Amino acid sequence: FESVCVRVRDASRESLKMEPLADVAMLPGEERVIDKDIIYICPFNAAVKGKVFITNYRLYFKNTDSTPVILDVPLGVISRVEKMGGASSRGENSYGLEITCKDMRNLRFALKQEGHSRRDIFEIIFKYAFPLSHGMQLFAFLSQEKYEENGWNVYEAMEEYRRQGVPNSEWRVTFINKNYELCDTYPTILVVPYKATEEDLKRVATFRSRCRIPVLSWFHKENHAVITRCSQPLVGMSGKRNKDDERYLDLIREANGTTKLTIYDARPNVNAVANKATGGGYEGDDAYQNAELVFLDIHNIHVMRESLKKLKDIVYPGVEESHWLSSLESTHWLEHIKLVLSGAIQVADKVSSGSSVVVHCSDGWDRTAQLTSLAMLMLDSYYRTLRGFQVLLEKEWISFGHKFASRIGHGDKNHADQDRSPIFVQFIDCVWQMTKQFPTAFEFNERLLVVILDHLYSCRFGTFLYNCESARESNNVRVKTVSLWSFVNRDTSLYINPFYTPESSCVLYPVASMRHLELWVTYYIRWNPRIQHQQQSPVEQRYKELLALRDQYLKKLEELQLSDSAPSSTHLTNRSTPNAATPNQHITHLQTPF
């Protein structure tokens, strides 16, 4: 096992039948650009001779030796391409290319030094990995993939709000943003307090950063408490006040008779105060007397970016066993996960107890999305289903304007852009932590989370492209690209958790302490062949076998019931003894909670 280098396959290719072209399995719309003999400098073993194929979608390497070594890397995963060494560099394999990836790995290739042998491949990778920087289209717009289900129909805003129980006598739907005139980063359909007029909304927008006014994310059907989301108020250094904004927050509080509205500011207190210098700030006690302000101490996008960078340094290519725990602690990654989860728990607990909340950070599209979506996942079992989780991502992240293009940098060569940050990765990690603590509460499995993150970068689907709904609309994304959910929902069996037990009214409160959180090894360290990760644990495999056996018995029982006449049914019943288990008895045994 250890002699084998790294075998990397794009998760998205599982069970997908594609027409082979030479050694590369091509997607519809994918075209080959260049082939080249090259040496892959494998970080886990010796250098490997082989051939690299570059298409308009991927980099594919296959070795020419007997031991198979395959790299299948979507070009969207590439963050940086650099030349390694020069024409006069000494040493074996010192001349070539170094490729930095967004998914916790780096790739190094060596070429012959004579005749500028790397120039053509460097230029082609640079051009196709960063198409937007070269006036070209992302692959999602070139793809010709076809699926039975149109994944763009997974989320319909009105349908989802009706499922929650709105509109009602306390909350109404407004179309004031139908042309993105109120707020260009919000969706067209918003839910606001019933008593708030359109003029109120316009006046409140002038006092909220980016005009992102407080709007409803989730409604508790029993106690009518709500989760609302927005951006920071524009208080500034002079401590400005806005009566319309103050009254508006009071309308949110009054909707279900909450005594004191809780405002969760995701930022550390010191950061919120510092934001006053740039015109932002927070809700002061004197202005918002019927509200309680709680700071959640979650750090900004820059801190998170540096934290993940440190994590990558300790997990790729090698893991140093002797100082592992102290190295992991020094990245602060799990500490940040803890703070995000802890904040979401506070939000969920407050709403569950009958009090409405407002959640914001600075602009309301990073930490705010993490907190609202995780709290909703804890409160509402629908979001813990395969379909419901897709709806949650579409609603709280995609439609409400998490800046995917800026945070990920799809097709953009500016790898050092200060807007890059793994906010969404961090959220998916938090979801994974919850699935570990509640293994029977989620209908979907770990594979779904990995596939989502792989296609966050791949640019194969349109789902995570652009910064907001208005940008997607102007680029015709729903018509010109395929949704990730079309791909996922074509074979849902791949993403089903066999331990799932539906529980409609249960609120999940994960334990957000360091001793209960763990590093997601099968994602962050998956490229290391010495980390023995299995797609399926033996326990999960055995459980699936038992479920299949149960289904066989159910089918058999159904056949017997259909084909047998009444007398033979009686005969069957008489034949049942404690020593001869009937299909029903087998079924009961298999349904015992695991």
TrEMBL record:
<dbReference type="InterPro" id="IPR030564">
    <property type="entry name" value="Myotubularin"/>
</dbReference>
<dbReference type="GO" id="GO:0046856">
    <property type="term" value="P:phosphatidylinositol dephosphorylation"/>
</dbReference>
<dbReference type="InterPro" id="IPR004182">
    <property type="entry name" value="GRAM"/>
</dbReference>
<dbReference type="GO" id="GO:0030175">
    <property type="term" value="C:filopodium"/>
</dbReference>
<keyword id="KW-0472">Membrane</keyword>
<dbReference type="GO" id="GO:0004438">
    <property type="term" value="F:phosphatidylinositol-3-phosphate phosphatase activity"/>
</dbReference>
<feature type="region of interest" description="Disordered">
    <location>
        <begin position="565"/>
        <end position="594"/>
    </location>
</feature>
<dbReference type="GO" id="GO:0005770">
    <property type="term" value="C:late endosome"/>
</dbReference>
<keyword id="KW-0904">Protein phosphatase</keyword>
<dbReference type="GO" id="GO:0048311">
    <property type="term" value="P:mitochondrion distribution"/>
</dbReference>
<keyword id="KW-0967">Endosome</keyword>
<feature type="domain" description="Myotubularin phosphatase">
    <location>
        <begin position="151"/>
        <end position="524"/>
    </location>
</feature>
<dbReference type="GO" id="GO:0001726">
    <property type="term" value="C:ruffle"/>
</dbReference>
<keyword id="KW-0963">Cytoplasm</keyword>
<dbReference type="Pfam" id="PF02893">
    <property type="entry name" value="GRAM"/>
</dbReference>
<dbReference type="InterPro" id="IPR011993">
    <property type="entry name" value="PH-like_dom_sf"/>
</dbReference>
<keyword id="KW-0378">Hydrolase</keyword>
<dbReference type="InterPro" id="IPR016130">
    <property type="entry name" value="Tyr_Pase_AS"/>
</dbReference>
<dbReference type="GO" id="GO:0052629">
    <property type="term" value="F:phosphatidylinositol-3,5-bisphosphate 3-phosphatase activity"/>
</dbReference>
<keyword id="KW-0443">Lipid metabolism</keyword>
<keyword id="KW-1003">Cell membrane</keyword>
<comment type="similarity">
    <text>Belongs to the protein-tyrosine phosphatase family. Non-receptor class myotubularin subfamily.</text>
</comment>
<dbReference type="GO" id="GO:0005886">
    <property type="term" value="C:plasma membrane"/>
</dbReference>
<feature type="active site" description="Phosphocysteine intermediate">
    <location>
        <position position="361"/>
    </location>
</feature>
<keyword id="KW-0966">Cell projection</keyword>
<dbReference type="Pfam" id="PF06602">
    <property type="entry name" value="Myotub-related"/>
</dbReference>
<feature type="binding site">
    <location>
        <begin position="361"/>
        <end position="367"/>
    </location>
    <ligand>
        <name>substrate</name>
    </ligand>
</feature>
<dbReference type="InterPro" id="IPR003595">
    <property type="entry name" value="Tyr_Pase_cat"/>
</dbReference>
<dbReference type="InterPro" id="IPR029021">
    <property type="entry name" value="Prot-tyrosine_phosphatase-like"/>
</dbReference>
<feature type="binding site">
    <location>
        <begin position="300"/>
        <end position="301"/>
    </location>
    <ligand>
        <name>substrate</name>
    </ligand>
</feature>
<dbReference type="GO" id="GO:0004721">
    <property type="term" value="F:phosphoprotein phosphatase activity"/>
</dbReference>
<dbReference type="InterPro" id="IPR000387">
    <property type="entry name" value="Tyr_Pase_dom"/>
</dbReference>
<protein>
    <recommendedName>
        <fullName>Myotubularin</fullName>
        <ecNumber>3.1.3.95</ecNumber>
    </recommendedName>
</protein>
<dbReference type="GO" id="GO:0046716">
    <property type="term" value="P:muscle cell cellular homeostasis"/>
</dbReference>
<feature type="domain" description="Tyrosine specific protein phosphatases">
    <location>
        <begin position="331"/>
        <end position="377"/>
    </location>
</feature>
<dbReference type="InterPro" id="IPR010569">
    <property type="entry name" value="Myotubularin-like_Pase_dom"/>
</dbReference>
<dbReference type="GO" id="GO:0030017">
    <property type="term" value="C:sarcomere"/>
</dbReference>
<dbReference type="GO" id="GO:1902902">
    <property type="term" value="P:negative regulation of autophagosome assembly"/>
</dbReference>
